[in-house]
Amino acid sequence: MVYNWQALSDAGAGGEQVWNLIVTGSFLSVLPLVAAFLSLQKYWRGGLSLGSVR
Fold first, then answer.
1. From first to last of its 54 residues, what are the pLDDT tens digits of the chain?
2. Distance of alpha carbon 43 from its chain centroid, rounded?
3. Within the chain, where are the H helices?
4. CA–CA separation, 24 vs 27, rounded Å?
């Protein structure tokens, strides 16, 4: 699917706009995951250290 959009972009059939939309959508979809990882990192580290101490 992405290959087809890349081919359209190379052909100059308006595919460049679609490619920009794909890249922007991908970036926006990753942002909440990064925010969740950064905000929950203290719990993740706490769980790792809790499991290693006996």
1. 667 766 766 666 555 567 778 788 888 999 999 999 898 887 777 666 666 655
2. 22
3. 2-11, 15-39, 41-52
4. 5
